[in-house]
Design brief:
Blueprint: H1 3-6, H2 19-43, E1 48-49, E2 57-67, E3 72-82, E4 85-91, E5 102-105, E6 110-113, E7 115-117, H3 137-146, E8 149-154, H4 162-171, E9 178-181, E10 185-187, H5 194-200, H6 203-213, E11 214-216, H7 220-230, E12 237-242, H8 254-266, E13 270-275, H9 278-287, E14 291-293, H10 303-310, E15 316-317, H11 320-327, H12 338-343, H13 346-351, H14 365-371, H15 375-388, E16 392-393, H16 406-417, H17 422-428, H18 431-437, E17 456-459, E18 473-478, E19 481-482, E20 484-485, H19 488-491
Parallel strand pairs: 2-5, 2-6, 7-8, 8-9, 10-11, 12-13, 13-14, 14-15, 15-16
Antiparallel strand pairs: 1-20, 2-3, 3-4, 6-17, 17-18, 18-19
Length: 492
């Protein structure tokens, strides 16, 4: 979409300048942005590094292996990896790896598949809106890896770099988790996330971001055209915004959702939907979407509603963490997790404790206020939906206050508060997520078994007994290559 066509002057934003002046200011803004991004790239901690040479083989000795399908932990195993594949799992001491194999001592730890974040944005920032910071997508990708996340689904990303970065990661040019991407989100004119970007993002950056991160459509014909435009880029999913954030903005109507979803399927791409209410969930399901992004977080579900949603057979990425983060904003000091302190600078973490009295946030405050009393409902809704038969997948929705990698660990704890056992929460971030991403095929990741991809995480202790152990990471293996992990105070 041509930015000039989308951005006629908006008086409510003070954009009353001539288009030529907009172009000139935007050019200046992007010169400053490029310089800032270059500086960030030079100064950011690496967090993870590949070894100078990848080992031809690897053996992880005397380790407990977690069967994520059953939740059972089998102790005293040797796991052999050759190239990027698991080749054998034996009793401890019985493995016969190649002579040149690198060894990692299990030492009473647990080996589990690399985690999968089913709502893992990589191109934005996690600092508060009142402490602007330039995005560093490649650092975000390394942060995921540091935290044991070896696969992400990014369900709303820029058309200018998401597909290229997916290819760069796949080729090894960029170090990061395996990426599945949607490209831009399809939304109503002025709908989510357009309204938030217009209010919270500097005008010169919003001028660029909005037409690259979204496709604004107001009719079935426009929706089909937007999907047809994106299809040649080979998105893994097409995301539709069927929610209002905040409540006063428009959202896609039923017939527009149906047209976009139908066009996506005609192009061989599964549509997924950002929802917030029961009505949103039903409209999206009736349109034929394959995945609910976010749970029903705007209201309490009753048993009949939960049963109706379960009848569609659609999995749901609950993303309670992002709403919890916003609901608690300004309600007291934010307690950082160990993984956050290892991957995020102290100044950024501390900035969340001092919420300014800013008119820029006034637009958002009613939305924040509406979330706080609903915190128990999110947990209860997940509990009811699971009991009715809905598969819950784990995703963090990385953004302000939700940090790459570390945010998924917070989400898993919230899933246990909603009634999942630690083993069930881990399955939501491994096998069940991989099953969706495999799109009808048997996944070659998300489980530890011979022949599967060697994306692995070694942690201390037993995370099925105490989920805190999942964050006590001793090793991350990506495609058979053990990564060097460098916490922020040591990464330099």
């Amino acid at each position: 979409m041509d930015p000039e066509r989308r951005f006629t002057p908006h008086s409510r934003n003070g954009w009353d300048m001539r288009r030529g002046e907009v172009r000139a200011r935007a050019a200046l803004g992007f010169a400053l942005l490029a310089a800032a991004l270059a500086a960030c790239s030079r100064e950011s901690a690496p967090l993870v590094r590949r070894p100078a040479e990848a080992p031809p083989a690897l053996v992880i000795q005397d380790v407990g292996v977690l069967d994520v399908a059953s939740g059972a932990l089998t102790p005293h195993r040797d796991v052999v990896v050759v190239g990027d594949r698991i080749t054998a799992i034996t009793a401890a001491g019985e493995a016969r790896p190649p002579a040149e194999a690198t060894t990692i001592a299990g030492d009473g730890g647990t080996l589990l598949p690399g985690l999968i974040d089913m709502h893992g944005h990589h191109g934005g920032g996690s600092a508060p809106s009142w402490k602007p910071a330039m995005p560093d997508p490649e650092r975000n990708l390394r942060a995921y890896l540091y935290c044991g996340v070896t696969t992400i689904l990014d369900p709303a990303s820029s058309d200018t770099d998401a597909f290229e970065r997916r290819a760069q990661v796949a080729s090894g040019e960029v170090l990061g988790p395996r990426m599945y991407v949607s490209g831009p989100m399809i939304t109503a004119p002025g709908g989510h996330p357009v309204a938030l970007m217009e209010e919270l993002v500097p005008w010169w950056f919003a001028w660029y971001l909005i037409p690259h991160l979204t496709r604004e459509v107001d009719s079935p014909e426009a929706a089909r055209a937007a999907v047809a435009e994106l299809a040649p880029l080979a998105p893994d999913v097409i995301k539709l915004s069927v929610d209002r954030i905040p409540a006063q903005v428009p959202r896609l109507q039923r017939e527009v959702v149906a047209a976009a979803a139908g066009e996506a399927r005609r192009n061989g791409v599964r549509p997924v939907a950002h929802i917030g209410s029961y009505e949103d969930a039903v409209d999206a399901a009736d349109a034929g979407i394959a995945l609910w992004m976010h749970g029903v977080y705007k209201e309490q579900l009753d048993d009949a509603q939960a049963a109706k949603l379960a009848g569609y057979g659609i999995p749901m990425v609950a993303t309670m963490n992002v709403f919890e983060s916003y609901a608690l904003l300004g309600q007291g000091p934010r307690e950082s997790t160990p993984l956050e302190r290892e991957t995020v600078d102290a100044e950024t973490l501390a900035a969340f404790d001092q919420v300014p009295d800013s008119t820029r946030l006034d637009f958002f405050r009613p939305y924040l206020d509406s979330l706080r009393p609903l915190r128990p409902a999110w947990r209860d809704n997940v509990r009811k939906l699971r009991a009715a038969g809905v598969t819950i997948l784990a995703g963090s929705d990385t953004q302000s206050g939700v940090f790459p990698g570390a945010g998924l660990h917070r989400e898993l704890h919230l899933l246990t508060e909603a009634g999942m056992t630690p083993a069930e929460a881990i399955r939501a971030a491994t096998l069940d997520a991989a099953t969706f991403l495999a799109n009808g095929q048997e996944p070659d990741f998300g489980v530890i078994a011979p022949g599967k991809r060697a994306d692995l995480v070694l942690v201390e202790g037993d995370p099925t007994a105490d989920l805190d152990h999942l964050a006590r990471i001793r090793a991350v293996v990506l495609g058979g290559v053990p990564l060097e992990r460098l916490p922020i105070d040591a990464g330099g």
